[in-house]
Amino acid sequence: MNVYTTKKELHGRITKLMHEGKTIGFVPTMGYLHEGHLSLVEHARKENDIVVMSIFVNPAQFGPNEDFETYPRDFERDAKMAEMAGVDYIFHPNADEMYPNDGGIQIIAGHQAETLCGASRPGHFDGVLKVIAKLFHIVSPTRAYFGMKDAQQLAIIETFVRDYDFPVEIRRVPIVREEDGLAKSSRNVRLSSQEREEAPIINQALSKGMEEYLTTRDVKTAITAVATMIEENSSGKIDYVSVLEYPSLQPVNEYTNQVLFATAVYFEKVRLIDNIIMSTKEGLQNVQNDVKQ
Ligand code: AMP
Prior knowledge:
Elements: E1 2-4, H1 7-19, E2 24-29, H2 35-47, E3 50-55, H3 75-85, E4 89-91, H4 95-98, H5 116-120, H6 124-139, E5 143-147, H7 151-163, E6 169-173, H8 193-198, H9 201-216, H10 219-233, E7 237-245, E8 258-266, E9 271-279, E10 285-286
Parallel strand pairs: 1-4, 2-3, 2-5, 3-4, 5-6
Antiparallel strand pairs: 7-8, 8-9, 9-10
Helix pairs in contact: 6-7, 9-10
Bound molecules: adenosine monophosphate.
C-alpha cells in the first residue's frame, strides 16, 4: 500500500493505472477508521482492480462551532487498518494541499440540503460537495462508495453526480452497527461511558417509529414516538427527528417508494446521526440491508 500526500503524485499514478485499463474504486473518509469504513473498502475491493481511500478531515464541511479541532485522528492506526482491508493507495493531503486557492466560486447543495442535517449545519453539504468534486477529479474513480449512515449526504452526492455528469458510479453501502445496534461512527469514542450505554436507544427508537408508522401511517405519530423514546431513555437532546421520502428528501406521499426515518441527537461532546429506510413496495419492509447498490 502506498500513501500519497500530494494531488499531483496521486493523479500521476492514477493516470498510469487508467492507461492500463484498471478500474478504480474510491472510498472517501475522514479517517479514524472503523468497520463501517472497512465495509466500503470490502465492496470496492470486490468490484474494482484498484482501491483508493482518501483520509482528510475536510475543514470546509465544519461550521465555526463544530468539532473540526477535536474530530478524532490517528493516521498510523488508519494506515494499518486500510492496508489490512486491501486498500492499494491512501490519499492523505493536508488542507493547504487541498485548498491552495480560493477564487470565490461556490458550489451550493440544492433543496435536498434544506432539511435534516443541512438545516442544522448551514453550509455543511456545500463543503461536502466542494471536497467531493475535487476528490473525484483527483482520483478519477470508476465507482465511489458511500455509507447509508449518511443517507442525506449520499442522496445529495447522487444528485450532484447526475446533474453535473461526473463520470463515476455511486454505490450505496448499508449501515454497519455495533452489536447493541449503535451505528458505528468515528465520533462514538467521544461519548462518555454513560452516554455510550444510552446511545443504542437511537436505533431502537427509529425501529419503534417505523412500527408506529406501519400501524398508523401517520408521520407525526411516528416522529413523536421516536423523540419520546430517545428523550425518556437518554441524556441526549434531539436535534431533529424526520420522516421523508428517500432519496428526494421531500414529504412522504401516496407514491413514495422508500421512507427515510432519520434523527440527530446531541450528547455532551458529540452529535450522533442514524436512520432507517423502509420500502413501501410489497408492504413496508426495512430495506437498510438491501438498498439499491
Ligand atoms: P466519515 O469518515 O465519517 O466521513 O465517513 C466516510 C464514509 O464512511 C461515508 O460514506 C460514511 O457514510 C461511511 N460510514 C461511516 N460510518 C458508517 C457505518 N456505520 N456504516 C456504513 N458506512 C459508514
